[in-house]
């Protein structure tokens, strides 16, 4: 385990574990309802410009870049 | 807290554990108890059937809920609105063994919290209407995510069953679902189906029937047991609720959870009902208040509850599903490598939408011409028949030029609207529509808007009413209001008709095409600029960021496309149709009274001449050009019919228009009509969607001001150079 990195800096194809989400309450709750929580394993499908696409619990979710930079993750 | 459970992990326990802690009602302990909620007691005659059962369908978006609903109910459907809301309410029924099953298709939601109108409607329906059975539709390929809402429903009521759809797809992916085990763990009936297989519908009907009638299934929903800290808080709040006998219609534990989550809608309800200033402080004793705060400081209970549910679900799904292979690149991922590529994604997007508009335009033209011809023949026939029976001239004119012309104006737009929304439905059902929102996010974000606003933009090209209604999917308040107001800038099918008609008269085909494209470009630019301007009025500290699910690509299903098309085209036919028809009759009146007078001396003539004093030097609009624009305010398609009445009398409208308008005047007119005002149907929708008179007034005045400024600039420049 390394130090937490921002989700926006993770390469495509990597599987990471969410360490913390430092977003506004509304956004955080919506993420939580979609299963994007601390401790959750996710795969980064797409991360170049614009929103980041992650795979979480078998579904693909696009998350805005601003929000993604507020999510820190641990690489395995 | 539960007696037997002292572990720190949240998990699903048996509900009977909970019964020891104050819950009075015990469902399904024996048959007589079961009757207490069984619909058997509801013995009222419905359509000749003595027994009626009410069933509600609930679930995530993209799980095939609506197609299953449609397949079950067939043509026995009624589409309306939820009271006071513009959200669609779909009801239907089917009959089995001479019993009547009425179904309600609740809006697709990810959760039962009250953060959107859809969620609130769904929750209220479950609590207030108390359906006999709630069917949660889940997706076998995404079980954890789609069962999440089922856990929330199970906290609210016991009458839950789960229908897991897309079994075939899961099988293809190598997933084996042990339904028996899943059923046992969740404590409620579960059925596994693939909705498009022919036997599924009968199986679902039988499943619903058996769930309500036989002992084949049990209804003992597993109770979510949270971490000890949360359970401690729930326990304390529950005690206070019971002492104060607050809101008996909600289950106590659920109410406690909602208070803990600080659910705005529930807190407001309670404050109103019991005149409590602060429900949270009142509903707990002062002694434990401090402890609460110290716990709540460490985490947000609402997020903690979601987390616990997911971690319980994870365990259950893992134990009852084998062959689950997480994080494997599927076909959609491979397609997305190209389709949402940071560079190639855009040429593909542009090609797809260019093809989209070309198909709409070219496929509908021959149909429109055909309808036009039929209407001409028909109105000619009516005129002759009326004349042959010597009916008064006034009446003939009202029937032919008012009523029939009004119906014609509606009919003409139906093919274009149908084709347009069928194509939107194909894009939507295939999964590409969500991708285009994703791609457009990069573009729209430069103007302070989110990609989700793009969907409303696309819908608006068909009919602004549909475009405004599509803003519901936008979670960001600023973007939503922006798109509601800016929809007036989007040339709907009706305005496309005016553009195509006038550019064809005044310009060479290639120049006409170029001008049309330019006009569309101007519209989109005005929408983006509006987004840019509006962000200064909505200084939100925490704008809601883009969070968008990208469904898997699949072949569009014919049935889904037909249903989606019918829904949206239906909006146009019903709402816009009425307005267009009434507007046409109104136009006839003000342009024909006093009857027999020259056009200049009718009511419309006077109004037009009054306005022309201002508009002629500014925009180049004389009184005769003003009248169609006035008529166009309630309904844009009236512009063509008004031009016909004013310029077509006694000769060809084409030669007459070419002779009376200069090129700058024509361009100025085209530009002005493109964006100057929402039609009345759109205005009514702005009011119902925003529930604000202020925004409705802005929705009318803002486009008028922006368009006037733009037209003055363009006309004055053109006048000098041409």
Q: Can I get a quick summary?
A:
Chain A is of the alpha+beta class and 76 residues long.
Taking pLDDT < 50 over at least 5 consecutive residues as the criterion, the unreliable ranges of chain A are none
How many DSSP helices of chain B? 31
Mean pLDDT of chain B: 82
What letter string, H or E per element, gives the SSE order of chain A?
EEHEEEHE
The greatest inter-chain interface is formed by: A-B, 39 and 41 residues
Our estimate of the beta-strand percent of chain A is 35-45%
Quaternary structure state of the chains depicted:
heterodimer
Amino-to-carboxy terminus distance of chain A: 6 Å
| Total beta-strand segments of chain B | 12
Helix fraction of chain B?
55-70%
Strand order in the sheet with the most strands of chain B: 3-4-5-2-6-7-9
Number of helices of chain A: 2
Q: Biggest sheet of chain A: strands side by side, in what order? A: 1-6-2-3-4-5
What is the second-level CATH architecture of chain A?
Roll
Count of distinct strands of chain A: 6
CATH topology annotation of chain A? SH3 type barrels
């Amino acid at each position: 385990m390394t130090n937490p990195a921002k989700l926006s800096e993770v390469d495509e194809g990597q599987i990471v574990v969410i360490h913390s989400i430092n977003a506004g309450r509304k956004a955080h709750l919506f993420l939580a309802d979609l299963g994007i929580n601390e401790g959750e394993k996710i795969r980064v499908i797409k991360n170049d410009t614009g929103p980041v696409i992650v795979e979480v619990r078998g579904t693909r979710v696009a998350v805005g870049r601003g929000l993604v930079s507020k999510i820190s993750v641990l690489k395995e | 807290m539960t007696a037997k459970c002292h572990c720190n992990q949240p998990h699903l326990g048996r509900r009977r554990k909970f019964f020891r802690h104050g819950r009075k009602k015990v469902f399904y302990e024996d048959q007589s108890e079961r009757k207490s909620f069984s619909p058997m007691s509801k013995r009222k005659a419905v359509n000749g059937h003595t027994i009626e059962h009410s069933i509600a369908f609930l679930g995530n978006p993209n799980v095939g809920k609506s197609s299953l609903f449609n397949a079950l109910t067939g043509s026995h459907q009624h589409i309306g609105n939820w009271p006071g809301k513009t959200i669609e309410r779909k009801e239907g029924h089917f009959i089995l063994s001479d019993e009547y099953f009425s179904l309600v298709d609740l809006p697709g939601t990810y959760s039962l919290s009250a953060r959107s109108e859809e969620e609130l409607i769904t929750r209220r329906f479950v609590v207030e209407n108390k359906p006999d059975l709630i069917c949660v539709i889940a997706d076998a390929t995404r079980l954890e995510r789609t069962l999440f809402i089922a856990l929330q429903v199970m906290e609210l009521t016991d009458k839950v069953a789960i229908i897991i759809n897309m079994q075939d797809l899961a099988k293809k992916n190598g997933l084996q679902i042990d339904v028996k085990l899943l059923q046992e763990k969740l404590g409620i009936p579960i059925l596994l189906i693939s909705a498009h297989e022919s036997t599924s519908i009968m199986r679902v009907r039988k499943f619903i029937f058996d769930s309500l009638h036989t002992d084949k299934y049990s209804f003992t929903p597993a109770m979510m047991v949270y971490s000890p800290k949360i359970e401690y808080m729930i326990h304390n709040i529950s005690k206070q609720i019971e002492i104060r006998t607050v809101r008996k219609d909600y289950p106590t534990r659920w109410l406690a959870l909602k208070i803990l989550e600080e659910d705005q809608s529930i807190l407001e309800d309670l404050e109103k009902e019991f005149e409590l200033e602060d429900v949270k402080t009142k509903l707990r004793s002062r002694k434990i208040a401090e402890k609460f705060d110290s716990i709540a400081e460490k985490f947000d209970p609402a997020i903690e509850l979601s987390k616990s549910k997911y971690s319980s679900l994870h365990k259950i799904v893992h134990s009852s599903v084998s062959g689950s292979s997480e994080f494997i690149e599927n076909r959609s991922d491979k397609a997305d490598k190209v389709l949402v590529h940071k560079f190639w994604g855009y040429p593909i997007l542009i090609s797809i939408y260019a093809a989209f508009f070309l198909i709409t335009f070219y496929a509908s033209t021959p149909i429109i011409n055909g309808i036009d011809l039929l209407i001409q023949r028909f109105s000619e026939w009516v005129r002759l028949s009326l004349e042959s029976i010597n009916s008064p001239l006034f009446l003939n004119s009202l029937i032919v030029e008012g009523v029939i012309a009004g119906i014609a104006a509606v009919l003409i737009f139906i093919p274009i609207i149908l084709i347009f929304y069928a194509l939107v439905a194909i894009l939507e059902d295939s999964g590409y529509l969500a991708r285009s929102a994703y791609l457009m996010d990069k573009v729209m974000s430069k103007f302070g808007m989110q990609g989700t606003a793009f969907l409303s933009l696309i819908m608006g090209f068909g009919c602004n009413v549909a475009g405004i209604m599509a803003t519901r999917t936008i979670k960001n308040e600023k973007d939503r209001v922006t798109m509601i107001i800016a929809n007036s800038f989007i040339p709907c099918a009706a305005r496309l008709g005016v553009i195509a008609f006038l550019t064809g008269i005044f310009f060479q085909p290639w120049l006409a095409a170029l001008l049309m494209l330019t006009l569309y470009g101007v519209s989109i630019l005005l929408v983006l600029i509006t987004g840019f301007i509006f962000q200064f009025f909505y200084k939100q500290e925490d704008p809601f960021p883009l969070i968008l699910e990208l469904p898997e690509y699949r072949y569009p299903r014919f049935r889904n496309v037909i249903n989606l098309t019918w829904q949206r085209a239906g909006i146009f036919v019903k709402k816009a149709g009425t307005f267009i028809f009434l507007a046409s009759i109104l136009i006839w009146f003000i342009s024909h009274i006093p009857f027999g007078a020259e056009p200049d001396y009718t009511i419309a003539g006077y109004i037009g001449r009054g306005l022309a004093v201002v508009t002629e030097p500014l925009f180049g609009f004389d009184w005769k050009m003003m009248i169609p624009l006035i008529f166009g305010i309630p309904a844009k398609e009236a512009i063509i019919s008004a031009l016909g009445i004013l310029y077509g009398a006694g000769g060809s409208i084409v030669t007459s228009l070419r002779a009376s308008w200069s090129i700058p005047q024509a361009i100025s007119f085209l530009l002005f009509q493109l964006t100057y005002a929402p039609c009345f149907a759109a205005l009514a929708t702005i009011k119902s969607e925003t529930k604000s008179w202020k925004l409705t007034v802005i929705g009318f005045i803002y486009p008028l001001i922006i368009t006037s400024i733009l037209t003055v600039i363009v006309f004055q420049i053109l006048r000098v150079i041409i």
